[in-house]
Structure prediction request, 551 residues.
Amino acid sequence: FAASGGALVAYADARTDPATEPSQAAPKKKVVVLGTGWAGTTFVRNVDSSLYDVQVISPRNYFAFTPLLPSVTCGTVEPRSIVEPIRKIIRKKGGEIKFWEAECFNIDPDNKKVHCRTNTGTNLERNGEFLVDYDYLVIAVGARVNTFNTPGVVQHCHFLKEVEDAQKIRKSVIDSFERAILPDLDEEERKRTLHFVIVGGGPTGVEFAAELHDFISEDLAKLYPTVCNLVKISVIEHGGHILTMFDKRISKFAEEKFRRDGIELRTGYRVVKVSDNTITMEDKLHVESSVSYGMAVWSAGVGARPIILDFMKQIAQGNRRALATDEWLRVRECDGVYAIGDCATMSQRKVMEDILEIFKFADKDNSGTLTVKEINDALEDICIRYPQVELYLKSNQMSNIVDLIKASKGDVRKESVELDIEEFKNALADVDSEVKNLPATAQVAAQQGNYLASCFNRMKHCDKKPEGPLRIRELGRHRFRPFRYKHLGQFAPLGGEQTAAQLPGDWISIGHSSQWLWYSVYASKQVSWRTRALVISDWTRRFIHGRDSSC
Ligand code: FAD
Ligand code: MG
Ligand code: MG
Ligand code: MG
Ligand code: MG
Prediction:
C-alpha cells in the first residue's frame, strides 16, 4: 500500500491547480470503485470517506441482495425488497462519495485512468463517454454468465444473475401456464409448454428448481387445475451429482428430496445445443439425446466480463478465468490497482516455493538446523503468511508442529529434534495441498470489500515501508495481515420449508429448523432496515396469502 502511495505523492502534487490558493493539506487521494455489487458496496460502506476522494462507477445504481434472487423468480419476495439504492447507501456516509451511473469500458493503468460510458441515453456529447482518473482503483465488476459458447443459449435461455432476469423468469413461468391452458392445444403441446428445464445443478439452479416446485404445487396447481398434472421440472447437470460444493450428505438428501418431489435429475449430461423448443445434450460417452421444453434457465457457471478479459491482456495475465491478485488483493504488477469479488482470484503463496526463506527466517541462531523451539517461535508468523499451514494441522488433527515432524520423521522424542533443510522440507511437503481457490460467493466478495476498506482506512498511518512484500523475512514489518477468508457456512434451500445448512466445523443440519435459521440469517444480512422490513413482510404475506400469480 505505502509503496504505491509513496510513488503517488509526486503525481498528486503535480495535479494541484496553481491558480487556487495552495492549501496546507495535501489533496486527498482519488479512489475509484468499479461496481456496486457485494464487493464494491461493502468496500464503499466501510471505507473512511473523509480520508479519500471516493468515486463509485457502475451501470447499476443499486445494490442487489443476490441470495434472495431465486425467491424473486416465483414472487416469494418482491424485486423492490432486495435492492437498495446506492445513493442512499452513500448518503449515509455524509455525502462525500460520488456516484456515476456508467459502465467502465477500458482501464488504462499506465495513465491511471478509466474510460466510462453512460447508459442513460445516446444523444450526449462524445457519446456519453468520459474519463476518470484515479490514484487507487478498486475493481469489483463481478462476473458474467458463462454459456461456454453453447449455441442457442443466449437466444433461448433465461439467466438468473440480475434482478431483471428474475422478473423475466417470473413472467415467463406464469405465461407458460396461461399458454398451456388455452383451448386449442393438444396434450403434447401442453406438456412441452409446461416442461421447465434448469441447466446447472449448483446452488442457484437447485434453489430455483425448489422454488419453482413450491410455487407450482402450493399456488399454481390451485389456479390451473386442468393442466397442473402435465408439469415437469428437470435439472440437467454435467457432473455426477448436484450441489457438489456441499457435503455428500447434503447432495444426497437434495437428490432424494427432488426425486420424491418429482423433479427429474439428469446428471452426467452436458447441454450442447438449444433451439426454440428442444435442448440437445450429450452423455459421458458423447451419445446425443434431446428433450422438448417450454422454458429453460441457464445457470451453469460464470466467466470473466469483457472488460476484465481486455485488462488481463493488457497486463499480461491473458488466458486466465479471473484477475490474479496477491493476498493483499493487489493486482499483480499493477500499481495502485486492487480487485475484489467474483472478477478476481487471489493466488496464495506456496510454502514450498519459499521454503528456503522460511527456514532462514525460523533459524534465528543461524545454525543451519531448526530446533522445535525455533519452529514454534516462528510458527505464528508462518501461519499468518501461509494460512495453509494452520489449515493443514487442523485438518490432520495435529495440535502443533511436533506432530507434523513426528509424522514425517517417524519416532522422535519431543525436545531433541533438530531438522535440517531437507527434513524441514519433508515435514511441510504436503501443507500446500490446503491452498484452495476461494469460491465465487457473496460471502467472499463482502469479506474482501471489508478487508480492503480497513486497509485503506489505515493506509495513512503507515510508514514508507513497502507493504505486503512476498517475503517471510519481512513479516514482522507488515502493517496489514494478508486477507484471510473466514467461512461462515452455506445454505441450500430445498423447498417445502426445508433447507440444508453446512456450518463450519462440519456441522450439518437439514430440515425445517435450518429453514428458520435461513430466514433469520438472511433477514439479518439485509443492508438496511427498509429492505429487512420489506423482505420479512413479503415472507409473512406469502405464509398467509400465498404467492401472487398475476403479471
Ligand atoms: P456483483 O455482485 O455481480 O457486482 C458487480 C457489480 O459491478 C454490479 O453492480 C455491476 O452492475 C457492476 N459492473 C458490471 N460491469 C461493470 C463495468 N464495466 N463497469 C462498472 N461496473 C460494472 N453468494 C452467496 O454467498 N450466497 C448465496 O446464497 C448466493 N446466492 C446467489 C444467488 C444467485 C441467483 C446469484 C446470481 C448469485 C448468488 N451468490 C450467492 C453469488 C454472489 O451473488 C456473488 O458471488 C457476488 O455477487 C459477487 O460480488 P461482486 O461484487 O464480485 O459482483
Ligand atoms: Mg461489486
Ligand atoms: Mg451483488
Ligand atoms: Mg473471487
Ligand atoms: Mg537453529
Remarks:
- The first strand starts at residue 29 and ends at 34.
- Residues 363, 365, 367, 369-371, 374 surround magnesium ion (ligand 5) (CB under 6 Å).
